Please model this.
Amino acid sequence: MSDEKKIEEMMRQIVTALVNQTDSVTVESVDQGGSFVINVHVAPDDIGKVIGRQGRVVKSLRTLARAASTYTGGRHVEVEIIE
Model:
């Protein structure tokens, strides 16, 4: 399993633990040259849980993804929450 897929799976597990509608969670990564973007799709009712108060949860998710990206050769990682 590639390092990008490992980070993608990590995001899937964390977000699934946060939301009520676990079946609606999908995570996909898109390669953009020197960096890659992880798109996290959740149900509209669960958007607030993933973002958190004042964006604290999504900020933590982004920090975890960036920390894990050190194992991918230092490629830049972005996490986007999509309804």
User: Anything to note?
Assistant: The chain has one domain: 3-82. The two ends are 27 Å apart (CA to CA).
